[in-house]
Structures are given as structure tokens and as C-alpha cells.
Amino acid sequence: MKGRSQGPADASRRILDPLRITVSRPLVLLRLGYRTAAQVQEKTSRLLDEEIAACAPLVKARAVLAPFPIERAGPVLRLGERLQSAARTLRERLDGCDTAWLFAATIGDGVERRSATFSEKGELTRSLLVDAYGSAAAIALGLALEEAVMRECAPLGLVATRRTAPGYGDFDLEAQRPLVELLDTASIGITLTEDCLMLPAKSVSGVIGGRLPGAGREFHPAGRGPGAEDDPMGAAG
């Protein structure tokens, strides 16, 4: 685990490299639209197992996270010196919170490049399977970050909320830009396009609040919400 100072969260900003994640076969199947393994044809199942084995070493999961005090001015929330939003999605998720953790994480571009290579060769089935693995890995990133923030909250007597992210609900995707600036995501290899999409593509970002038990409205706390197939943050990628 490495640390590097940046902005108002100098002492608390953390880089998790490597970040341990688990990409399960059932999660990959869900990204392919299968609810059970019995639905998968034998040939597809064999190809999937081959690609899961090939993709696992390509995952280079790493993340950066930092806590910021939440400032409120009417409907506007402000985190750090740059990120501010009046989004209802963000206000509801951070209801009762005085601190929020910003995070960004990526699996690198190895899986993405493998999928593109198969696509260029016309091996579309393998390309699709690899892409599904990458999307499942992106979901695993988000779940791992929720667990990381839970561990940060525990010594403070706080309960972590589930995450939300720029681009979800009415939380403007443009908020991605101040988020990556506050975290210095370039330090883990994440950059933004002009349209505020993250590169590598299999990357996630977001906001997780920390509140005292019983404070604010109760949404699904981190680690105890819907399954990954229902996770709105898992739909990206």
C-alpha cells in the first residue's frame, strides 16, 4: 500500500496497489445475461473458462481514495475545493454524513486490449466473453472499494453508505473532472476523455459517505445491499 499527498486530504489519501478483487464466474455469467450456469451452451462454457483463466493475470487492480468533509450550502454539497453538486442523488446518499470518501479504481487496460484483439481478428464470441469478464471485474472494483471505506469508517464509529457516482441519476457526469483532480487519478493510470469518460475503460469512480449509526435516511449500507446484478454502479463498463 502506497500513499501520496494531494490537496486537502494530504494525510489521508491512500493508494491501494495492488487492490485485491475477486472476479467470480457467476458474476461474469450475469454480465453475459445468464442467471445460471445451466443456461450456457457447452461450447460457450468451455470458451468462457479459457478466457477467465487467460484474463485473470491481466487484471492489475489499483485504486486511490481519500476522505473529504462535506460542506452544505442549501441544496449544494461541496467536497474538497473543486467538487460541488446540487444533485438529489448525491444529497440522498450522503444524508446524515459529515464526511465522504472519493475513490477511483481501475483494472488496467490488459483485458480491454485482449478483447479488442479478438474483435479485430473477427473472433467476436471470445471478444464478448473477455469484455464481460472486464465488466465483472469493474463491478468487483466497486465492491472492494465499499469494503475499503467500511474499514476506514469502523475506527471512527461510522457506518459506510453504498456508493454513488458521477453520471448516475442526476449526479452530473461533469463532476468526474473535479473528482479525478482531487484524487490525482493519473497516479494510478486513470485519465479522462473530453466527454468525462475514464480511461482505461474498465475503471470506476464514486462517492461513499460515512455516517453515525442511525443518522440520516437508511439506504442499503455498504456490503449489505442488493446483489451485484441489481447494483446500479455495476451497470457501467
Provide an overview of this structure.
Helices cover 32% and strands 20% of the residues. With 237 residues, the chain is an alpha+beta fold. The protein has a domain at 7-23 and 60-107 and 136-235: NADH Oxidase (3-Layer(aba) Sandwich). Strands 1, 2, 3, 4, 5, 6 and 9 form a 7-stranded antiparallel sheet that branches. β3 (76-79) and β4 (83-85) form a beta hairpin. The two termini are 26 Å apart.
List keywords for this structure.
single chain; 237 residues; alpha+beta; NADH Oxidase; seven-stranded antiparallel sheet; two-stranded antiparallel sheet; 6 helices; 32% helix; 20% strand; elongated; disordered C terminus
Might you state the CATH topology name of the domain at 7-23 and 60-107 and 136-235? NADH Oxidase
Series of H and E elements: EHHEEEHEHHEHEEE
CATH architectural designation of the domain at 7-23 and 60-107 and 136-235: 3-Layer(aba) Sandwich
* Mean pLDDT value: 90
* Largest sheet data: 7 strands, antiparallel
Q: List the total number of helices.
A: 6
Got a strand count?
A: 9
Topology:
Elements: E1 14-16, H1 25-31, H2 42-55, E2 62-73, E3 76-79, E4 83-85, H3 88-93, E5 97-106, H4 110-120, H5 124-153, E6 159-160, H6 176-183, E7 191-192, E8 198-199, E9 203-211
Antiparallel strand pairs: 1-2, 2-3, 2-5, 3-4, 5-9, 6-9, 7-8
Helix pairs in contact: 1-5, 2-5, 4-5
